[in-house]
Amino acid sequence: MKIGIDKLHFASSHLYVDMAELATARNEAPDKYLIGIGQSKMAVIPPSQDAVTLAANAAAPMLTAADIKAIDLLIVATESGVDNSKAAAIYVAKLLGLDRRLRTIEMKEACYAATAGVKLAQDHVHVHPEKKALVIGTDIARYGLHTPGEPTQGGGAMAMLISADPQVLALADDSVLLSQDVMDFWRPLYHTTALVDGKYSSNIYIDYFQDVFKTYLEEQQTTIEAFKALTFHLPYTKMGLKALRSVLPMATTTQQQALSTHFEHARQLNREVGNLYTGSLYLSLLSLLLTDPELMTDDLIGLFSYGSGAEGEFYTGRLQANYQQGLDLGLPQRLARRRRVSVTEYEMLFNGQLALNADDQTIACDDDPHRFVLTGQRHEQRQYQDREN
């Protein structure tokens, strides 16, 4: 029985800042961001969106009435949670109108947690093949204005429906895992932005990839030639390119070029959005599937998931014959319709997020076109609105 990703859908902001303009405002050469980091645009998340609304906006458009009836497991993976106790999944389930007979949990391990959710969902569907699981990676990457990490911010949510007989990607049971206590990235409870040792974190990322990838090849008694494409967690797209280049000498000259070409497709949409934390790997997968014309049924796709702190996993999936039917086909057009904001407006929106205090607050959301929005806080409870109800 095949189990895997049946549908993928993405949501982010309707706003972005141009990375060349941001570089100029920060007295940096534009190519430092455009080439050195590998980012062209960065999603600017308005105060009317948070991890909950992004998750609901990502999932709702792809779910049919039959999907909603079959879903009995909802996993929301995030490091941008809105409550230290109550799972974001509870809020998302209500907004989506999911059945009450539902297991709802929130998962956290930096950028890795969505992969843990996918693998748990895979096991769940294996035991209950008539059911479906919804996994959503949703985050807002914040490092602060005028910080070294600022150009690697962004935000959005990737929703994935896991089922038997999947339309998109049949997942294998061949994961290689690695977990160690590493202080490359963390956010203490008293911080609203992350702390990161950037160079150290980059080195750990590549070390983890080489470890799990080479171990996979040994355990499966295969070679890099078995893969049509390798996809990566992309906190910024140059990071994935560095990881890919670290193993390209294992391939023939012809396949080195092919893998590099496929990677360019796999980072195309991430270049336009920025860092998604938990959703980054899966936006890269969606980017590959939407933009690469050379993919074929049964192609083997490798997926490298990484979360600082640190945890990594490499696993694989086989492309299915009707994979296009499960994709968010309108995403490139939606990204093209976004509104460009100035650096000044971006800074204002960054500083205008819901304050972390007990006060009643109201958030203006008239300019936000999304179905689900955050309208404020009342009696220390976040107020969400579904504009279709």
TrEMBL record:
Q: What is this protein called?
A: Hydroxymethylglutaryl-CoA synthase
Q: Which CDD domains match?
A: init_cond_enzymes
Q: Which NCBIfam families match?
A: HMG-CoA-S_prok
Q: Which GO terms describe its molecular function?
A: hydroxymethylglutaryl-CoA synthase activity
* E.C. number(s) listed in UniProt: 2.3.3.10
Q: Transferase among the record's keywords?
A: yes
Q: Which organism is it from?
A: Lactiplantibacillus daoliensis
Alphabetized PANTHER family for the sequence: 3-HYDROXY-3-METHYLGLUTARYL COENZYME A SYNTHASE, HYDROXYMETHYLGLUTARYL-COA SYNTHASE
Q: Which UniProt keywords apply?
A: Acyltransferase, Transferase
Q: Which domain of life is it from?
A: Bacteria
Q: Which residues form the Hydroxymethylglutaryl-coenzyme A synthase N-terminal domain?
A: 3-165
User: Domain Hydroxymethylglutaryl-coenzyme A synthase C-terminal: where?
Assistant: 258-348
**What protein family does this chain belong to?**
Belongs to the thiolase-like superfamily. HMG-CoA synthase family.
The UniProt entry, under InterPro entries, shows: HMG_CoA_synt_C_dom, HMG_CoA_synth_N, HMG_CoA_synthase_prok, Thiolase-like
Q: Would the keyword NAD be found if you checked this record's keyword annotation?
A: no
EC class = transferase
Identify one Pfam family in the record: HMG_CoA_synt_N
